[in-house]
From TrEMBL:
Keywords: Metal-binding. GO terms for molecular function: lactoylglutathione lyase activity; metal ion binding. Residues 2-114 form the VOC domain. InterPro entries: Glyas_Bleomycin-R_OHBP_Dase, Glyas_Fos-R_dOase_dom, Glyoxalase_1_CS, VOC_core. This is Glyoxalase. Signal peptide: none annotated. It comes from the Bacteria.
């Protein structure tokens, strides 16, 4: 079995293109009325149009799927993303070397350092 793509739901395609392409830096591969496709390190991230977005809720205690973006330095990436106006769910990166952020549609994602990096600490 191989991961083919990851799908998230958004209710504003213009805002989704701005967030994922401009703020996160993902390359847009395809843009249609109800679907955006972004390149995501060997697979594709598909933003599909929906009517309603989801509330963030109790992030750590509710079942959900989370995309985790691997970065070299959580602290540096956190700072850069905060400067772009990206909303984080943590005031600072956690000791577990990750930080959760939310897109404009309530989808929660994380930035984290690689497991190899954690083993060296």
């Amino acid at each position: 079995m191989k991961l083919g793509h990851i799908m998230i739901f958004v209710n504003d395609m213009t805002k989704a293109r701005w967030f994922y392409s401009e703020l996160l830096g993902l390359q847009t591969l395809l843009e249609q009325e109800n679907k955006l496709v972004f390149a995501l390190d060997g697979c594709q991230l598909i933003a599909f149009k929906c009517e309603k977005t989801k509330e963030i809720g109790d992030y750590s205690n509710e079942a959900r799927t989370v995309l985790v973006f691997e970065v070299v330095s959580v602290e540096q990436t956190y700072k850069e993303m905060k400067e772009k106006g990206i909303q984080f769910l943590h005031d600072k990166p956690t000791q577990g070397r990750y930080a959760a952020f939310v897109d404009p549609f309530g989808n929660v994602h994380e930035i984290a350092e690689s497991f190899d990096h954690w083993a060296q600490i």
